[in-house]
Amino acid sequence: MSQKANFSRDLIKLKNIEQVISEITERLQNDVFNILRRKGAIVGISGGIDSSVTLALAVKALGADRVIGIIMPENDSSDDSKNLALQLAEKFGVKTIEENMTPALEGFGCYKRRDEAVRSVIPKFNPETDKFKIEIKQSILNMKLPPVFNATVYFADETTESKMLPMKAYLQIVAASNFKQRSRMSMLYYHAEANHFAVIGTPNKHEVKQGFFVKYGDGGADIMPIGHLYKTQVYELAEFLEVPKTIIDRTPTTDTYPAEQTQEDFFYQLPFETMDILWYGWENGYSAEEVAKEMGYSPEEISNVFINFERKMKTTDYLRMPPIHFSK
Amino acid sequence: MDTIITQTEQLRSFISEITFKEIDEITEDTLLFEEGVFDSLGFLSLISFISENFGIEVENDELNEENFQSIKSVISFISKKKNVLE
């Protein structure tokens, strides 16, 4: 019987990157051509690390002429996102199509519904001049209770106001913002169907397991080639695949709300390097004591993080569930 | 005393309604999070419920186990907040 290795930060590192890439690309090729019987791949590219690695893998698997990168900016996207996506496409020799999502989102009432919910909590918020984001103020390390979101408004006069979001406003902001991922998914499938291609999804392991994706939004794709990789491992692949350094060095953002927001303050509450190794420890049955010793936290802090992981897995099951089909 | 009983019943009934649990399964000592009664949206609903029904505003630094681990601790939290307001 093999003995479990002592817990260490290095456990998460990929042993043979070349082999991992070769397994993914072989599988991608087989899935696109033989299982899905499609001629190529559509990848939504945002200038982020996950979509960049996914595009690079798709090119390696299928060839650059069988991959199209779709860039889908909207009102709240940063200019960096588009520029980095273009850099990426140029590097890998991939055709890009830009689709401005703002008119569709205005049609859905995405911004109007979302801003109305923010104003219900912070009445002075003026979407024309002010910016806002939603964030978690509590630390995952010393909290056994679930996190609660705040809306933080950055006013044009450089003052800020932050208020805890009540249920109704929180749900309305999330539901309205999710139009972004869902309309992008529709656009990706438009191009996929118009070219007889498959849609390749970009969520990584944390996003899938912790439910940091939108059901039938970025969670809607034909294949998820990096859904089993920790973010740290996605970065390892990025280096190996020679993804542009500007993309590798960029802090992961949500690019969803008007004010700048990292994935850490929106959802994870810890830097991804730490989150990865803690998740590995939890998932592989290491005790809070063993993990705490290696990571320099107290066992109680690690135990709180583990409680949160378990809760997130359980409460986001709904997102990973396929439709329930009745049979006779 | 009557107020405490009423508040306890209001909270039990609210928790039963939003968690689809039988009201008899929820006592004032049930550990709302440790026993898995509440998820994160449940917690948010509870905060909204006590704000709307007991007229108190919950602050970020009050979101801790001492104030929210059971109905008993929520009642004690409400009472402390009301005393400060009065």
TrEMBL record, chain A:
Family: Belongs to the NAD synthetase family.
Pfam families: NAD_synthase (PF02540)
Protein name: NH(3)-dependent NAD(+) synthetase
InterPro entries: NAD/GMP_synthase, NAD_synthase, NH(3)-dep_NAD(+)_synth, Rossmann-like_a/b/a_fold
Pathway connected to this protein: Cofactor biosynthesis; NAD(+) biosynthesis; NAD(+) from deamido-NAD(+) (ammonia route): step 1/1
EC number(s) on file: 6.3.1.5
UniProt cross-references to HAMAP family, sorted A to Z: NadE_ammonia_dep (MF_00193)
Residues that coordinate or bind ATP: G44, I45, S46, G47, G48, I49, D50, S51, T202, K231, T253
Domain NAD/GMP synthase: 21-108, 172-307
GO cellular component: cytoplasm
Annotated positions binding Mg(2+): D50, E207
DNA-binding as UniProt keyword: no
PANTHER family per record: GLUTAMINE-DEPENDENT NAD(+) SYNTHETASE, NH 3 /GLUTAMINE-DEPENDENT NAD + SYNTHETASE
Automatic annotation (TrEMBL), chain B:
Domain Carrier stretches: 2-82
Domain of life: Bacteria
Pfam families hit by this protein: PP-binding
Protein name: Acyl carrier protein
Organism listed in the record: Mariniphaga anaerophila
